[in-house]
């Protein structure tokens, strides 16, 4: 707002905003703090927790005892793999719908969006049985396929809204200068589309990384990504707060950082371009 | 403008997506419907066959179904209520000039990036746990008995976890919408003597209604599939107290191996989700045209 704001009002608003932000962030902050404590200290009263010593013990234990690294790699391979696969399928489709729109393009887009409305549980049984019969249960490739198809509508929609903003005139100019379809895509379109493709990649990796219906139901020990690895902590033996915190911090840190970069794309991407 | 050749090229480029999405929808959904009319239990491999509507009869007359239906509505409704109202207030707050706005924003949106299993476990152990949780310490500090939240108010506790995850999303979208509001309009209203309240009701709320519709639509899609939060906190219990439709179908098909019954439940879930979807698509359709 262009108006001048009195300093007092600004200070009061700042205090309220910081208190709210602190409260909302607190569960994450607390998890990070507990991850640097011993198991004994982690379950003491909150004030005693803060004054107790700091240690990396829990991180050592998590790395030693569990195959943390394997689950981490599963998460990386599954989330990036599914999004890359989705991009390969979606880029031509989004390109065609944005630049060669037909009569039914809008209907096709709406239909794609409507496939997202189907609750996953409605197809859980057949997918589970098919995976069992085809030996895809607990494999990375199985999850890559499912998450790819699950996010495909969002990927297409996001790319479509970005491609739509590329001025058609530039493409036509290239065409008139004799560019073939191939070179038009490689030399003219791609450089202009890269920011949009990158944001699409980023947001969908975040969604795939955090996906916790299919990853929990279709994996066991081998291909389990971090979501499933963390869920294994739900039936604990003995004291485990610090280890749980360490494992959690490791699982959310990469995506938290990626997420902060993607704030702007988040709004646009998840609202299918309806709010910019 | 577009030639016949580019038209067919376009069709060729769109078709893989359309075919894959169609298969992804139609084949499993068709199988679910097929299974829902079969007696098919993985524990009794010999006894299969067509049973008509029997699976539906069992599923729909099971008292657990009504509990699950109610729980689903309460969970989705509760989360929507908290996130839309809370998000509106937070967006108004973040729209003010405050010191360190960027950092405040980053802190507020952080929960959205936390994976569901992590947030559920963190809340379950570090907050709700009656012995070691922070809420336990707080109530003890004020001289109250520790309260076992997940045992006595499981659905509400889960609602709060899920709302915490989705509050940033609602805030971010409403904030984006708020920032696109023409400030001159607000200033003009202010000069004409409109109070803060009437400026909010007559200018901001209508402007935000479209964004709020989008928030409701998208969150509903995701919230109907809430699963991990229930799995790691209460396992749907105690009893059926926190079992939603999604969770009930999971229990029936993957834990009790009743493929037929689970499939019937899945079909019911799809039908209910579609009722919501049609209703919401119409709402959003009206808003998007304008």
Attribute tags:
heterodimer; A: 276 residues; mainly alpha; MetI-like fold; 14 helices; 0% strand; B: 290 residues; two-stranded antiparallel sheet; 2 strands; MetI-like (chain B); transport (chain B); cell membrane (chain B); MetI-like_sf (chain B)
Q: Approximately how much helix is present in the residues of chain A?
A: over 70%
CATH class of the largest domain in chain A: Mainly Alpha
Strand content of chain B: under 5%
Q: H/E series of chain A, N to C? A: HHHHHHHHHHHHHH
- CATH homologous superfamily classification of the largest domain in chain A: MetI-like
Helix run count of chain B: 13
CATH architecture of the largest domain in chain A: Orthogonal Bundle
| Poorly predicted runs of chain A | none
| Shape estimate of chain B | globular
CATH fold label of the largest domain in chain A: MetI-like fold
Main pleated sheet of chain A = none
CATH architecture of chain B: Orthogonal Bundle
Protein name (chain B): Sugar ABC transporter permease
Keywords (chain B): Cell membrane, Membrane, Transmembrane, Transmembrane helix, Transport
Main location (chain B): membrane
Subcellular location (chain B): Cell membrane
Tell me about this structure:
The complex is a heterodimer of chains A (276) and B (290). In chain A, 74% of the residues lie in helices and 0% in strands. Chain A has 276 residues and is mainly alpha-helical. Chain A folds into two domains: 7-60, no CATH class; 67-234, Orthogonal Bundle (MetI-like fold). Chain B has 290 residues and is mostly helical. Chain B has a single domain (53-289), classed as MetI-like fold, CATH 1.10.3720.10. Chain B has helices at residues 4-36, 54-61, 63-95, 101-109, 116-128, 134-141, 149-152, 154-179, 183-191, 196-223, 228-233, 245-255, 259-289, and strands at residues 38-41, 44-50. At the A-B interface, helix 1, helix 5, helix 6, helix 7 and helix 8 of A face helix 1, helix 3, helix 4, helix 5 and helix 8 of B.
């Amino acid at each position: 707002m262009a108006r001048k704001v009195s300093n007092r009002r600004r200070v009061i608003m700042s205090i309220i905003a910081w208190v709210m932000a602190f409260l909302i962030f607190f569960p994450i902050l607390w998890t990070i703090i507990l991850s640097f404590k011993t198991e004994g200290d982690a379950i003491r009263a909150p004030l005693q927790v803060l004054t107790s010593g700091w240690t990396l013990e829990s991180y050592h234990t998590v790395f030693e005892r569990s195959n943390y690294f394997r689950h981490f790699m599963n998460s990386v391979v599954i989330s990036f793999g599914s999004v890359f696969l989705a991009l390969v399928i979606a880029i031509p489709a989004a390109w065609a719908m944005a630049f060669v729109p037909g009569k039914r393009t809008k209907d096709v887009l709406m239909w794609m969006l409507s496939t997202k409305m189907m609750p996953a549980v409605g197809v859980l049984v057949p997918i589970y049985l098919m995976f069992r019969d085809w030996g895809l249960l607990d494999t990375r490739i199985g999850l890559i396929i499912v998450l790819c198809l699950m996010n495909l509508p969002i990927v297409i929609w996001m790319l479509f809204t970005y491609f739509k903003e590329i001025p058609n005139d530039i493409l036509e100019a290239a065409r008139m200068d004799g560019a073939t379809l191939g070179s038009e895509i490689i030399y003219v379109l791609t450089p202009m589309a890269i920011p949009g493709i990158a944001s699409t990649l980023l947001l969908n990796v975040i969604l795939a990384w955090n996906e916790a219906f299919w990853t929990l139901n279709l994996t066991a020990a081998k291909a389990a990504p971090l979501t499933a690895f963390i869920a294994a902590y739900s039936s604990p033996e003995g004291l485990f707060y610090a280890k749980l915190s360490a494992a959690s911090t490791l699982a959310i840190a990469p995506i938290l950082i990626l997420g902060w970069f993607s704030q702007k794309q988040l709004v646009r991407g998840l609202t299918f371009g309806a709010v910019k | 403008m577009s030639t016949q050749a580019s038209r067919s090229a376009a069709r060729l480029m769109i078709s893989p997506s359309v075919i894959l999405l169609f298969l992804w929808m139609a084949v499993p959904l068709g199988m679910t419907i097929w299974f829902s009319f079969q007696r098919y239990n993985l524990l009794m491999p010999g006894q299969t066959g067509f049973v008509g509507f029997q699976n539906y009869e069992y599923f729909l007359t099971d008292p657990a179904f009504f509990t699950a239906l109610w729980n689903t509505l309460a969970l989705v409704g509760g989360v929507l209520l908290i996130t839309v109202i809370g998000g509106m207030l937070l967006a108004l707050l973040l729209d003010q000039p405050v010191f360190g706005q960027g950092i405040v924003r980053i802190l507020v949106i952080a929960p959205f990036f936390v994976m569901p299993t992590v947030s559920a476990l963190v809340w379950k152990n570090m907050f709700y746990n009656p012995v070691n949780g922070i809420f336990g310490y707080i109530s003890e500090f004020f001289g109250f008995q520790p309260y076992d939240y997940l045992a006595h108010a499981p659905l509400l506790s889960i609602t709060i976890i899920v709302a915490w995850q989705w509050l940033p999303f609602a805030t971010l979208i409403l904030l984006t919408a708020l920032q696109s509001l023409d400030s001159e309009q607000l200033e003009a209203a202010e000069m004409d003597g409109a109070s803060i309240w009437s400026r909010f009701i007559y200018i901001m709320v209508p402007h935000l209604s479209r964004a709020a519709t989008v928030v409701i639509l998208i969150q509903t899609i995701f919230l109907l599939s809430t699963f991990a939060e229930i799995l790691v906190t209460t396992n749907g219990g105690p009893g059926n107290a926190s079992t939603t439709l999604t969770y009930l179908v999971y229990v029936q098909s993957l834990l009790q191996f009743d493929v037929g019954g689970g499939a019937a439940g899945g079909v019911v879930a799809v039908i209910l989700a579609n009722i919501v979807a049609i209703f919401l698509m119409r709402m959003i359709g009206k808003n998007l045209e304008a």
